[in-house]
Amino acid sequence: MTTSPTMGCPICRASAREIWLDENGVFLVQCEQCSTFTITPERRTAFAEAWRDHRRELLMFLELISCYLRLADDDGQRDVSADTWMHLAAEGENMLAEGGLDD
Ligand SMILES: [Zn+2]
To answer: Which pTM was predicted?
Structure first.
């Protein structure tokens, strides 16, 4: 579990680097799309399964989370866990509604 094969960003599948933070029990992900965030092993596994099984509803949420991570400033919440991921998706949806992405 502590080793991370290069499987891309758990949120958006772009190329990413993952570092296991033992003291926090989370992965620190540096993604070329989502920038830097942390994710719990539980969410990481759940999202990997969503990608593997093409679970469209969940993948839609992941897209919103990726939007949030891209648009939020560094002071924003950047810890993806079972408690926060739905909230982050909702935030991403709000941000898109307010103007969306330029690119
Ligand atoms: Zn990403």
So the answer is: 0.87
